[in-house]
Amino acid sequence: MNRQCRIWLPKLLSSSDDSTTHNSLLFGWFVSHHSSSCLDVVVAFITDETSLSGSSLQEVLNETNEKMPLSLRNKAAFTLLGRYDTCLGANGNALKNVTDEDLYSKVESNDGLLEDLRKDSVSSYWIHMVNDSSSEHGIRMHHIHWNGDIVSQCDVHVIVYETPVFGSHHFSLSFWNASPQIKAPLKKPNWVGDLHKRQPLIEMETVILSMNCAASAELTYKKLSTYLETSSRKFSVSYLMSTCVWWLLATLISSLSSLYYSLIKLFNVLSSFSIFSWVRIASRRLLKNTWINFRIRSCQILYWPIFLQENDTRSISCVEDAEKAARHRHSTWSAMAVDLVLGNMIGLALMSNTGDVCSWLFHFTKEFTNDILRSGCVWLMGVPAGFKLNTELAGVLGMVSLNVIQIWSTLWIFIASFIFYLIKAIAVMGITFGATVSAAFVIDVITFATLHITALHWAITLVYSHQIQALAALWRLFRGRKMNPLRQRLDSYGYTVKQHVVGSLLFTPLLLLLPTTSVFYIFFTITSTTINSICMFIEFAISIIHATPYAEIMIWLVRRRRFPSGVWFEIENYRKNIHNSSSDPLMVSNLRSNFLSIGQILLPHYTTMFSGISASSLTTSARGVLSGNRMPSKLGLDLPPPRPWMHLPLRQYWILCHGSIISSSEKGSNHDLSHRSGQTS
């Protein structure tokens, strides 16, 4: 069987000139397969062979390999791959017609250091590549040591890739936010099991992981081997200005966060006193939504410096993991920043137009009470839409509704003087804690202001549901059926004559009174559902603000390459005649990436938000309305989970915020440093 070798080559190495590739060493990973005829060679970088002594090679390789992810170390070890030479003639020009035997004798006659390094290498492979201008792409493999055999003729596929760098791009085989399938079929076909038993031809996951770690491996190796002088920040005016700007920014943000922290801590201390305990209990019951969103915002303010300082060991070496960790760190502060910006916009608009908002609320409340509630009840007491209702029952239900509406309107006359301060409070909450807290407070205010409608709807629902249940039970009596609650089914049952007579006497008036009860139930159900829909819409807006990944959207708009989704190969050179004496590669390809669209980025977040809502729950709610059950007043959307309270002194919290911003700037500088190192190598 003909052996197959895939060489994953960095783009900088494939496009380098002859002077930079003369007598150089290749470092990277050998990814072997279950089939002994296939091998993947992932080249991370190239160095000069004169810069490293054979005695320190194994120590440098071990220390560099320790910095790699554990999943990569379990499948492939970072090692010395081989050497990379330039074929030069006596006059300095590239040789065009050099046989494999001549070239092999030429390279083996060089320093004996390469042979010692190859023997010291823990890998059973060794590759020798040359940069030959006679080749169409300029790169070809001379020979490879393959488990003790020297192989010079095999199917070679050179794949050129651009080295992944944090903040620039990386490679990925799947979606970042792809969730596994929850449900699986009960029985799978036999061919599915056989397909899973087969080993993949290419260990793509290991190859992609090694390419994502190439830049970190190069930077770590050069620091350990002291091949290149360790890059350091040079004292300059630009560096001094950058440091001053970061220090001022850290001081400003830390002071604002400390101010928020002091306000939250003061509020928490005051609410712990027994004098204010009843106020706290009452406010939690009346302002339930406000408390939930206030706790979420408080936790975000408390924990954002900790989120910013979170650093995973694997994220240092793997670019894909570094991108995920950075996205997780940025999600908290970006959501808080957008929420505060929206809250300030709404709050400032309310502060500048408080009088107009108050007059509009008074007008709307008056029109809603008089033109909808009172007029609707009076209309239902007559002949609504031509239906002949029971006058006595309609009069009782209408008078009770009008009295409740009048009592609540009288109470709101005394509360109306506080509307101005209520709007000011909503504006201040939006400016201070963001739009979600003020919007949640608006939901609680609407719920409290429409408490009389909720009470009337609950009362008429109770009457209507019991009437429906009684009619259903009497109808089963006439059919000779009885409900079995244990088996949830209808069983046959023999009723007596007296039971049938009593049932007939009860069934007739209940059936004749049903239209009167139904019209009142429909009226208050529509009114209550409209109010609940407004509250649900505000709740939906709050969940959208919390769930939207603002940091990912901003990064996607600036650099879409940081969101890869699968890879594909762009064939650049292909030779069909594999029996040709030339050792040019059989195929040369460029590794390309697909990228996520904005919808694919947002969909997983919104799917998680709507995880508590299903079509069956909506169908159940719709059926419940017909049988007299109340509609839910909340959607039950997913919100960020609250975290435990944190108790820190104010000074220590300021130092924590300041240090997190400074450390974040240093991490960004280190990533930029690795980026420049990868470009200049």
Protein model, in words:
This protein has a ten-stranded mixed β-sheet with strand order 7-6-5-4-2-3-1-8-12-11. A two-stranded antiparallel sheet has the order 9-10. A hairpin with a 2-residue loop joins strand 6 and strand 7. With 681 residues, it is an alpha/beta fold. The chain has helices at 11-14, 57-66, 70-75, 100-108, 113-120, 190-197, 204-212, 214-225, 237-272, 277-286, 288-309, 313-317, 319-352, 354-381, 391-415, 419-433, 435-449, 451-479, 497-547, 550-558, 598-609, 615-627, 650-680, and strands spanning 4-10, 24-32, 38-48, 78-86, 125-131, 140-146, 149-151, 155-161, 481-484, 489-492, 564-574, 587-595. The longest helix has 51 residues, at 497-547. Among the domains are: 4-225, no CATH class; 355-547, no CATH class. The two termini are 38 Å apart. The radius of gyration is 37 Å and the shape is elongated. Keywords: Membrane, Transmembrane, Transmembrane helix. This is N-acetylglucosaminyl transferase component. Pfam families: Gpi1.
Based on helices, strands and strand pairing, what is the structural class?
A: alpha/beta
Mean pLDDT, rounded to whole units? 77
Q: What Rg do the Cα atoms give?
A: 37 Å
Task: Tell me the number of strands.
Answer: 12
Distance between the termini: 38 Å
Strand neighbour order, sheet with most strands:
7-6-5-4-2-3-1-8-12-11
Low-confidence stretches: 88-113, 177-186, 198-202, 227-235, 577-584, 673-681
| β-strand amount | 5-15%
Major beta sheet summary: 10 strands, mixed
User: How many H/I helices?
Assistant: 23
Envelope shape: elongated
